[in-house]
């Protein structure tokens, strides 16, 4: 029997098929905002530095770098890196790319990450020096962003922008793109990392139904799929035909208040709500347990994050919450709206659980479920009392918290203005010493939990479902598919 | 004469019985439900249907009782389908009757408007309207109602044009009856038969349309249960908890079937072709 | 003794099941058709003329209709018990029919020649091409101008009169023994009616075809027929030679009928006779004679007993009447 | 006939003008904008950047001006660029068209294959138990929500290779067998309900036709039952079925959104849904125009087919 | 010749139906000349019959003169007033005096109305418009008495039309036509749809009513025997034109127009003896289309006496005898010869 059961010599399949639920929205790394586009850019372009599967900043196009002071960064580039068009990458390309990001006319979302860069100097063909106008502790982390990929000038000039073409240095090259159907990438034979990529071809397929994605992996139509939906993952976990990879991601589910709107301008009211929300129940019901409770810094950013039960108001306490409400003048509660949407980001399920939990302290929440476009409209116009959101976090506390909660933060839609918080965030931004920074951000987490301008609920897991034949894939934790480069199907 | 005909038509009666069962269910649901349809129970998530727990149709992903939610959803479905049909019928019939009666230019203009509405696929049109107006139950009514307008306009126009050729209309004219008089006394009463059939069929499609809209996340919004949004949220879990999709689906199928049976039966009864004349 | 009749209908009964009850549309109807002769059947709307003739060829739709009794002997073969195959061989070949409404009796989506050729292919085993030639020839015979091109037309491109002629061409294509014409001219104008009747007459005389002519127009009967049956409420109330019938109608209904039509040959009539009341509802036929409620001469007996068919002596041949008036008369002797 | 077609095509113009006006303004009445969707909730932008973006997204001019510009471009054959993908709109739509067309076609074929025979059988056995079963079956078909049926199919067939398209469109030319296989379930999900419609129409129309005098004439000719039904009755009974089929074809072309969504078929309906969700105005406008055009064209084809099937219909007024 | 009062005079009435083409912008591409220049008078108390084959324009003529069809050209003088140009309100007033009995007893009664309401409806409308002033009770009483006169028992009052036979329905229609006390009855083939035994009942009823209410009839039929029986004067129509007009006696004894002759000879006579001896004049072909414009005699194509000139000119309606007019060159020529 032993002989008979022996598998025929395992064979490597040249193609790896990836299922995703959303189509990429353009491919210009400096312009795109959509998460779905980033996942393709992971494979098409490189940045100066990247994150590894432990969320550590490691070399990418830059072989090494020096930080002589907190205003100066010097990068030494790899030699012999070639763009897909065959030209070698030099320091000029880095300068051009960073300048393009910084140019307001490009309207790049990456601009805000690196806006303190005041000078970019080409030292030699393989050396670039960046000078900052103000210290930015999160600069290295910012440079790992897909939005700050290095692109060739001539490709931009030839096409106007890079939305429909891809001329990167990445492990794969764009071969065919049939919108809302498939995108085919082929191996870059000149890729600079020896032995990579492993598969000759990658095909992305767009399958909007998460259940269908899972079915696709099961039936062998797909080799790997990214699935957000907890219910589907829960089922996949009990399925021997597939392998589920799951770890808390960088995103944070939050319940946010409009801090200037009655009654949530009253800190006691916000605190009461915070005390009434049971993170583990929300996780169970809205995510099927596929996530981890978190405080202001995503729990997976292990270096910085403090678990919410160690922070103020981290444990449910209805009595105290009711007391706070009574103090604030609402002994009998009140009613208000929660804006949410039925997309995953819109957090409809979370809103329903929140609504249910707030009944415990006598608050009546009405769900204002709106279509996604409306949701964003409301968000932009700050037309909400409370809202369920999914915030894109970061392993770098400054990058996430400053723009969200500093009174001048670009995405501080909570209308939160607090001098103490502002001061702390500004301090953290300048500090380069890790221990000092840690202390600052510990304090930040405490203050934010106490003042509750929003309630940080949990970080949903990032999940990949693969067929058992896929080898070599690793999750980073921020959704990136970089490690697809290391993956291959062996049947 | 009328009632016994209806009673003797098996198909219509089957439909009527089904509909009445639902009406009963929706009335009962106003006063009594097995469980609170909105109450969540973390410890009872996705339980199988069972007598022991009392959740006859099982529970959903928030541990809510599915039977109670279906029952609660009945009134929503009724309200939406009845008011949307009423809206579409009133406006559509008004347009169609005048177009058919006046003929000529007025007919041309009215029917071109209906044609333009018609050349939008119904679901797409409904989606549009929902997107513009926002997701509220009354907007669902509006969206479906607007979709219905051209249908009613066409049918009533056709019926009026067919009637116009009858000699009794000429007779009334020759007796000095004016336009409005003829419309009210002779035309409208005589187009009720095709309209009744259309109405009962519209009631059924309204339920399907509402559920399709809800399925796309545009219909009745949670936590209020509607059969469509129950199915929509069941989509994620139905592979391992099929009851979450099966029962709301059946609820839709049976009520729609009820209206369709009634409509088909009424058509038999009211269609003179299938009757022995004279 | 003359030649035996080509078709004998005996005690034919046909009923319809309707929502409101059973309609006895044809009730014990008997008559014979002689070779080369024309039998007329008259009666008011709903008296069962069409159903009688449809029953002969078993063309009654079941449901709701059903032939419940009687015999139809064609060459001593009972068509009512014949196999489906046998009856198909008779329809269109030995017995063919023309219907009242030429507008609806032709299939609107099939070309004229095809509709004629169908029977030829079926019964005469012709090839398609041959059948087409024959169809065109038939069109020429019935007087359609330019038959070659007209054969390619569809029925709606023909006028009513032309369509009825096509029907006749179709019916006569296989030289049938019997032609049943069910009100062939009712839907047509008088001038066209005259054309059609002329055509039927000519074909009958040439081919020795027997004809059953159904009509409610006594004028047509007088012009076309040799024998006449008068039907009332699903029964034959009088059967006679055409001359006898018009000269001395026996049944009160026949008498009333003849008196109540305005006639061009008797101008200046001040007031028509009219039969009171209206034809009975076949669903609720009264007991006794169905005509008694409208009959001036009704007797007590008429109320309770259905009059049997009585045989009287006619001037040229025996005639039959179903009326109690003649029961006691010398001349009458009940049929065996 | 040629003249008739040209006339019908000309009648497209007012419909398209009406449709384009409605769409153009309606779309802009939907709260939210493409720019907002693009920015999402995560992105910061400086005021200069916002200005630039507004220009790029065409939000810097009043709507009527935009409309006129758009129509002007349309007349030059330029359908504009997608705000979502930055790709030209027309090729993207043309890419999806075959999928929607195929889906529509297959569903119709399935529906006719199921519906017509059942309808005929049912009419021949009017008021029998078989007829009753048939009708109830048909009514159930009408009562099943398409998406529900589709979802159940996805569950049932999730293990079998090739039956669920999975976003993987294989064209008919590429591999006819695989193409048919992947379209089978989606077509069935749509076709099932429509088969019920076809069945009802066939049945009713057969019942009517069977009472016609010409059917009796055919029988009186001695034609066997089968021929009477198939040649004489069905040819006439099929006419109303042509009309509903054409009508539904017009609808399906843009209307199978839910099925495309569930089976991940990249057709027009899905494109439309996404475009609405993303406020991708140029795409929405173009799709609606294309769908309206198709609708009118399909109606024209239906009328032509009808005229072929029914010689009484004359497309041009001939002299009698 | 006694002096007769003219009740209705029609002068050169034309009714053309436009044939339209086009989808968006309809344009006229000719017309159906349903009535193409008809003139005649109806005298008080008489019954004028209008006969002709199907489609020759009989119905259109009376629908037009009752202003239920658009009049293309011509005058309709009713008691001196031109109905063709009356304003709506005056027209309504005038309608009281002329009423229509329709051909189809099934479609001429609203299936949703009760018999009593059908008969009472005209009175109700006129009361509402203030032209009559009757109380509801009076209206009902009058309706019931009319029904009684027309042979409908009062017990039928609450029934619906579908519960009646064709003959009874026609009686309802007649009662309705009488309800406003009209002077002129326009009867459009009132007995064509009825069985022979019922036909005579209705004809008799009409005759009785004519006497009782002093009615004038314009009576359409395609059955010549019926017209002969019912009318004292007859007009024969062919393709929108009157080809011959005479008193019944004259027309039937001595038809002059070739069409009238053919028509009369085509009527089957219920007398088998006469039938065998009668000489028939069988016309070829069908009635041609009224949408073709023809300058000549409308009967030209089918006439066995046709002359070349018939194709070119349309013959006028000429007086050929006492109260006998014919539109045919055969007679015009004779007349012309006399003058020459
Ligand atoms: N399909 C049917 N269903 C029920 N009753 C029917 C059907 N066909 C005929 N009848 C009934 O049978 C009776 C006889 O009808 P038939 O058609 O023979 O009359 P007819 O003498 O030919 O009359 P007409 O002169 O109107 O043609 C009528 O009372 C009619 O109601
Ligand atoms: N509304 C209309 N539009 C076009 N043509 C019409 C219209 N009404 C009648 N006609 C045509 O006018 C001609 C005369 O029709 P009309 O009804 O007056 O004839 P008729 O003599 O009453 O015939 P019948 O004996 O059939 O009732 C016919 O050729 C008819 O086709
Ligand atoms: Mg008959
Ligand atoms: Mg007429």
TrEMBL record, chain B:
Main location: membrane
Topology in the lipid bilayer: Multi-pass membrane protein
Localization of this protein: Cell membrane
Membrane-spanning ranges: 12-33, 78-101, 113-134, 140-163, 195-220, 240-263
UniProt keyword terms in alphabetical order: Cell membrane, Membrane, Transmembrane, Transmembrane helix, Transport
GO biological process: transmembrane transport
SUPFAM superfamilies, per the entry: MetI-like
Pfam family, one: BPD_transp_1
Family classification: Belongs to the binding-protein-dependent transport system permease family.
Full protein name: ABC-type transporter, integral membrane subunit
TrEMBL record, chain C:
Enzyme Commission number(s): 3.6.3.24
GO molecular function, one term: ATP hydrolysis activity
Residues of the ABC transporter domain: 7-258
InterPro entries, per the entry: AAA+_ATPase (IPR003593), ABC_Ni/Peptide_Import (IPR050388), ABC_transporter-like_ATP-bd (IPR003439), ABC_transporter-like_CS (IPR017871), Oligopep_ABC_C (IPR013563), P-loop_NTPase (IPR027417)
Residues of the signal peptide: none
Gene Ontology biological process terms in this record: peptide transport
Entry GO CC: plasma membrane
Keywords: ATP-binding, Cell membrane, Hydrolase, Membrane, Nucleotide-binding, Transport
Top-rank lineage group of the source organism: Bacteria
Lipid bilayer topology: Peripheral membrane protein
Subcellular localization: Cell inner membrane
Database matches in NCBIfam families: oligo_HPY
Family statement: Belongs to the ABC transporter superfamily.
Official protein name in the record: Oligopeptide/dipeptide ABC transporter, ATPase subunit
Organism in which the protein naturally occurs: Sphaerochaeta globosa (strain ATCC BAA-1886 / DSM 22777 / Buddy)
UniProtKB/TrEMBL annotation, chain D:
Entry's Gene Ontology cellular component terms: plasma membrane
Compartments reported by the entry: Cell membrane
Regions crossing the membrane: 103-124, 136-157, 183-202, 237-259, 283-309
Location (main, coarse): membrane
InterPro entries (alphabetical): BPD_transp_1_N, MetI-like, MetI-like_sf
Record PROSITE patterns: ABC_TM1
Annotated membrane topology: Multi-pass membrane protein
Domain of life where this protein originates: Bacteria
Domain ABC transmembrane type-1 residue range list: 97-302
Gene Ontology molecular-function annotations: dipeptide transmembrane transporter activity
Xref: Gene3D superfamilies: MetI-like
Keyword Membrane on entry: yes
Record keywords, A-Z: Cell membrane, Membrane, Transmembrane, Transmembrane helix, Transport
PANTHER family, sorted: DIPEPTIDE TRANSPORT SYSTEM PERMEASE PROTEIN DPPB-RELATED
Family that this chain belongs to: Belongs to the binding-protein-dependent transport system permease family.
Protein name as annotated: ABC-type transporter, integral membrane subunit
Organism of this sequence: Sphaerochaeta globosa (strain ATCC BAA-1886 / DSM 22777 / Buddy)
From TrEMBL, chain E:
Pfam family, one: ABC_tran
PROSITE patterns documented for this protein: ABC_TRANSPORTER_1 (PS00211), ABC_TRANSPORTER_2 (PS50893)
Residue ranges constituting the ABC transporter domain according to the UniProt record: 10-264
InterPro entries xref list: AAA+_ATPase, ABC_transp_ATP-bind, ABC_transporter-like_ATP-bd, ABC_transporter-like_CS, Oligopep_ABC_C, P-loop_NTPase
SMART domains tied to this protein: AAA (SM00382)
Keyword Hydrolase belongs to the record: yes
Enzyme Commission designation: 3.6.3.24
Superkingdom to which the source organism belongs: Bacteria
Keywords: ATP-binding, Hydrolase, Nucleotide-binding, Transport
Enzyme class: hydrolase
SUPFAM superfamilies noted in UniProt: P-loop containing nucleoside triphosphate hydrolases
GO molecular function, one term: ATP hydrolysis activity
One GO BP annotation of this record: transmembrane transport
UniProt key word Hydrolase: yes
Family the entry assigns: Belongs to the ABC transporter superfamily.
Protein name: Oligopeptide/dipeptide ABC transporter, ATPase subunit
């Amino acid at each position: 029997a032993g002989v008979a059961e022996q598998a025929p010599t395992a064979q490597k399949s040249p193609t790896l098929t990836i299922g995703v639920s959303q189509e990429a929205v353009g491919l210009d790394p400096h312009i795109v905002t959509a998460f779905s586009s980033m996942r393709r850019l992971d494979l098409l372009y490189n940045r100066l530095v990247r994150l590894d599967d432990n969320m550590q900043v490691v070399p990418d196009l830059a072989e090494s770098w020096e930080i002589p002071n907190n205003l100066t960064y010097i990068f030494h580039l790899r030699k012999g890196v070639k763009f897909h068009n065959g030209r070698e990458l030099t320091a000029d390309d880095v300068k051009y790319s960073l300048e393009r990001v910084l140019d307001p006319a490009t309207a790049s979302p990456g601009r805000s990450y690196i806006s303190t860069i005041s000078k970019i100097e080409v030292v030699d063909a393989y050396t670039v020096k960046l000078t900052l106008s103000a210290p930015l502790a999160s600069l290295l982390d910012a440079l790992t962003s897909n939005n700050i990929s290095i692109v060739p000038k001539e490709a931009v000039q030839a096409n106007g922008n890079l939305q429909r073409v891809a001329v990167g240095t990445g492990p794969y090259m764009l071969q065919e793109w049939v919108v809302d159907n498939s995108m085919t990438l082929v191996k870059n034979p000149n890729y600079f990392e020896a032995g990579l990529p492993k598969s000759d071809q990658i095909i992305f397929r767009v399958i909007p139904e998460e259940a269908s994605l899972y079915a696709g992996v099961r039936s062998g139509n797909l080799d790997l799929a990214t699935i957000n939906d907890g219910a589907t993952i829960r089922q996949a976990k009990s399925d021997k035909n597939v392998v589920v990879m799951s770890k808390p991601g960088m995103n944070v589910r939050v319940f946010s208040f409009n801090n200037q709107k009655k009654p949530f301008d009253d800190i006691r009211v916000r605190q009461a709500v915070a005390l009434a929300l049971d993170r583990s129940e929300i996780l169970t019901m809205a995510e099927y347990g596929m996530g981890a409770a978190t405080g202001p810094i995503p729990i997976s950013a292990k270096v910085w994050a403090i678990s919410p039960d160690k922070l103020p108001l981290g444990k449910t306490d209805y009595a105290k919450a009711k007391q706070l409400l009574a103090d604030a003048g609402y002994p009998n509660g009140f009613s208000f709206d929660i804006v949410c949407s039925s997309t995953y980001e819109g957090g409809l399920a979370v809103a329903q659980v929140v609504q249910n939990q707030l009944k415990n302290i006598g608050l009546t929440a009405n769900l204002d479920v709106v279509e996604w476009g409306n949701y964003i409209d409301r968000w932009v116009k700050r037309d909400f009392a409370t809202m369920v959101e999914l915030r894109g976090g970061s392993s770098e506390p400054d990058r996430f918290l400053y723009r969200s909660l500093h009174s001048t933060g670009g995405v501080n839609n909570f209308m939160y203005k607090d001098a103490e918080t502002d001061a702390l965030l500004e301090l953290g931004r300048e500090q380069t010493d890790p221990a000092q920074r840690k202390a600052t951000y510990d304090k930040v987490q405490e203050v934010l939990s106490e003042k509750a301008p929003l309630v940080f609920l949990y970080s949903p897991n990032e999940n990949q479902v693969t067929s058992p034949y896929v080898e070599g894939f690793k999750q980073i934790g921020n959704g990136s598919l970089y490690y697809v480069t290391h993956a291959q199907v062996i049947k | 004469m009328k009632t016994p005909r209806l009673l003797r038509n098996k198909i219509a009666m089957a439909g009527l019985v089904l509909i009445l069962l639902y009406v009963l269910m929706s009335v009962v649901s106003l006063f009594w439900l097995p469980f609170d349809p909105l109450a969540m129970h973390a410890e009872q998530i996705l339980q199988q249907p069972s007598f022991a727990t009392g959740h006859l149709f099982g529970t959903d992903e928030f541990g809510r009782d599915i039977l109670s939610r279906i029952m609660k959803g009945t009134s929503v479905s009724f309200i939406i389908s009845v008011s949307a049909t009423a809206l579409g019928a009133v406006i559509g019939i008004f347009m169609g009757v005048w177009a058919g009666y006046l003929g000529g230019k007025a007919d041309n203009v009215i029917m071109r408007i209906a044609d333009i509405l018609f050349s939008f696929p119904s679901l797409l049109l409904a989606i549009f309207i929902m997107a513009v107006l926002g997701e509220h139950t009354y907007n669902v009514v509006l969206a479906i109602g607007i979709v219905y307008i051209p249908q009613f306009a066409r049918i009533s126009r056709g019926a009026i044009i067919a009637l116009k050729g009858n000699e009794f209309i000429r007779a009334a004219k020759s007796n000095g009856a004016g336009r409005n008089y003829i419309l009210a006394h002779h035309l409208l009463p005589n187009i009720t038969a095709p309209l009744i059939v259309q109405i009962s069929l519209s009631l059924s499609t309204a339920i399907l349309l509402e559920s399709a809209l809800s399925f796309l996340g545009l219909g009745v919004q949670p936590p209020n249960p509607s059969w469509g949004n129950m199915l929509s949220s069941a989509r994620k879990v139905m592979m391992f908890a099929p009851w979450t999709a099966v029962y709301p689906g059946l609820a839709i199928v049976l009520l729609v079937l009820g209206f369709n049976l009634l409509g088909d039966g009424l058509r038999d009864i009211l269609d003179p072709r299938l009757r022995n004349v004279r | 003794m003359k030649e035996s009749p080509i078709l004998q209908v005996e005690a034919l009964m046909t009923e319809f099941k309707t929502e409101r009850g059973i309609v006895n549309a044809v009730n014990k109807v008997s008559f014979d058709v002689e070779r080369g002769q024309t039998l007329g059947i008259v009666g008011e709307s709903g008296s069962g003329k069409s159903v009688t003739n449809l029953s002969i060829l078993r063309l009654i739709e079941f449901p709701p209709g059903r032939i419940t009794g009687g015999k139809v002997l064609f060459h001593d073969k009972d068509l009512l018990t014949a196999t489906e195959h046998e009856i198909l061989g008779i329809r269109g070949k030995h017995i063919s029919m023309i219907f009242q409404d030429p507008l609806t009796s032709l299939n609107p989506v099939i070309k004229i020649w095809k509709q004629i050729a169908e029977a030829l292919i079926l019964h005469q085993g012709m090839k398609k091409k041959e059948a087409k030639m024959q169809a065109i020839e038939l069109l020429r015979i019935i007087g359609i101008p330019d038959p070659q091109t007209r054969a390619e037309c569809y029925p709606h491109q023909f006028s009513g009169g032309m369509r009825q002629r096509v029907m006749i061409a179709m019916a006569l294509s296989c030289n049938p023994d019997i032609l049943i014409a069910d009100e062939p001219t009712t839907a047509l104008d008088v001038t066209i009616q005259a054309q059609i009747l002329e055509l039927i007459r000519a074909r009958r005389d040439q081919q020795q075809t027997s004809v059953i002519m159904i009509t409610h127009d006594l004028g047509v009967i007088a012009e076309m027929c040799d024998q006449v049956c008068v039907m009332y409420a699903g029964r034959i109330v009088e059967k006679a030679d055409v001359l006898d019938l018009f000269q001395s109608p026996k049944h009160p209904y026949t008498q009333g009928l003849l008196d109540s039509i305005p006639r061009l040959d008797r101008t200046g009539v001040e007031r028509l006779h009219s039969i009171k009341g209206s034809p009975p509802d076949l669903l609720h036929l009264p007991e006794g004679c169905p005509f008694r409620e409208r009959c001036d001469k009704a007797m007590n007996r008429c109320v309770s007993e259905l009059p049997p068919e009585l045989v009287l002596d006619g001037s040229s041949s025996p005639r039959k009447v179903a009326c109690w008036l003649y029961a006691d008369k010398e001349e009458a002797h009940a049929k065996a | 006939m040629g003249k008739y077609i040209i006339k019908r095509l000309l009648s497209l113009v007012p419909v398209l003008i009406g449709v384009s006006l409605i769409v153009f303004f309606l779309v802009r009445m939907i709260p939210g904008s493409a720019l907002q969707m693009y920015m999402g909730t995560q992105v910061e932008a400086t005021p200069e950047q916002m200005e630039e973006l507004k220009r790029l997204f065409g939000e810097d001019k009043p709507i009527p001006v935009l409309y006129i510009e758009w129509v002007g471009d349309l007349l030059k054959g330029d359908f504009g660029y997608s705000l979502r993908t930055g790709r030209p709109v027309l090729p993207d739509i043309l890419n999806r068209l075959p999928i929607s067309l195929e889906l529509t076609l297959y569903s119709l074929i399935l529906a006719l294959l199921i519906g017509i025979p059942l309808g005929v059988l049912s009419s021949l056995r009017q008021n029998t138990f078989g007829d009753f079963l048939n009708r109830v079956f048909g009514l159930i078909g009408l009562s099943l929500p398409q998406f529900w049926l589709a979802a159940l199919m996805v569950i049932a067939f999730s293990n079998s290779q090739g039956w669920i398209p999975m976003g993987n469109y294989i064209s008919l030319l590429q591999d006819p067998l695989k193409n048919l296989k992947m379209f089978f379930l989606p077509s069935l999900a749509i076709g099932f309900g429509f088969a019920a419609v076809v069945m009802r129409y066939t049945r009713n129309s057969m019942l009517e036709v069977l009472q016609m005098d010409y059917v009796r004439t055919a029988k009186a000719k001695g034609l066997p039952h089968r021929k009477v039904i198939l040649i004489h009755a069905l040819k006439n009974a099929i006419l109303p079925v042509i009309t509903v089929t054409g009508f539904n074809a017009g609808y399906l072309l843009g209307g199978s959104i839910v099925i495309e969504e569930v089976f991940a078929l990249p057709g027009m309906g899905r494109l439309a849904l996404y475009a609405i969700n993303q406020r991708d105005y140029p795409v929405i406008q173009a799709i609606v125009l294309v769908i309206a055009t198709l609708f009118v064209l399909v109606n024209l084809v239906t009328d032509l087919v009808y005229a072929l099937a029914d010689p009484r219909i004359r497309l041009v007024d001939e002299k009698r | 010749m006694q002096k007769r009062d003219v009740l209705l005079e029609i002068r050169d009435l034309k009714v053309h139906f436009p044939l339209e083409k086009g989808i968006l912008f309809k344009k006229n591409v000719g017309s159906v000349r349903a009535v193409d220049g008809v003139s005649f008078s109806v005298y008080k108390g008489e019954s004028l019959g209008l006969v002709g084959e199907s489609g020759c324009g009989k119905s259109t003529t009376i629908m037009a003169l009752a202003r239920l069809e658009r009049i293309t050209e011509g005058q309709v003088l009713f008691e001196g007033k031109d109905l063709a140009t009356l304003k709506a309100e005056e027209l309504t007033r005038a309608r009281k005096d002329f009423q229509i009995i329709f051909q189809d007893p099934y479609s001429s009664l609203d299936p949703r109305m009760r018999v009593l309401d059908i008969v009472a409806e005209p009175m109700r409308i006129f009361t509402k418009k203030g032209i009559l002033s009757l109380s509801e009770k009076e209206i009902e009483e009058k309706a019931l008495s009319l029904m009684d006169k027309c042979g409908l028992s009062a017990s039928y009052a609450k029934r619906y039309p579908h519960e009646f036979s064709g003959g009874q329905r026609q009686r309802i229609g007649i009662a309705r036509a009488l309800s406003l006390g009209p002077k002129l009855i326009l009867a459009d083939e009132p007995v064509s749809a009825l069985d022979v035994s019922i036909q005579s009942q209705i004809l008799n009823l009409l005759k009785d009513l004519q006497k009782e209410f002093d009615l004038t009839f314009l009576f359409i039929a395609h059955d010549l025997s019926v017209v002969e029986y019912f009318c004292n004067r007859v007009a024969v129509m062919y393709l929108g034109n009157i080809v011959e007009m005479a008193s019944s006696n004259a027309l039937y004894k001595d038809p002059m127009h070739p069409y009238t002759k053919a028509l009369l000879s085509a009527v089957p006579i219920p007398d088998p003896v006469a039938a065998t001896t009668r000489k028939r004049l069988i016309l070829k072909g069908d009635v041609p289309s009224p949408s073709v414009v023809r300058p000549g005699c409308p009967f030209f194509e089918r006439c066995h006496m046709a002359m070349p000139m018939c194709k070119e000119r349309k013959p006028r309606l000429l007086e050929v005898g006492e109260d006998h007019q014919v539109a045919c060159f055969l007679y015009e020529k004779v007349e012309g010869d006399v003058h020459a």
